[in-house]
Amino acid sequence: MKALLLVAHGSRRQRSNDEVIELAQKLKAECADHYAIVQAAFLELADTLIPDGIKNCVNAGASQITVLPYFLNSGRHVTEDIPQDVENTRPNFPEVEIHIAEHIGASAAMIALLKAAAINHS
Length: 122
Description:
Elements: E1 2-8, H1 14-30, E2 37-42, H2 50-59, E3 64-69, H3 76-89, E4 97-100, H4 109-120
Parallel strand pairs: 1-2, 1-3, 3-4
């Protein structure tokens, strides 16, 4: 069973974390044909950290997990922190295939999204 783990930075402001959780729920409806499980996790400052998110996906039946960094830029969190958390958690679930997708800022869809946002506000 495939899972998608949407990973955001995390915030001391709970409403910001809730927005990511709500986004993951909406994404689940949109990706249901590809991912049976869609959950949110955070790098820091929130209740569900990356290792917890991976564990939650496995407990829900995941045998494959795609970690999707919800970050615009490839800073230290994307290039070092997220991969380190995944690598540190991987030995706990040797039977589960876990890979990290490109951060959303690297997506070709970003240009269309930025264009739509700019046009809607002009």
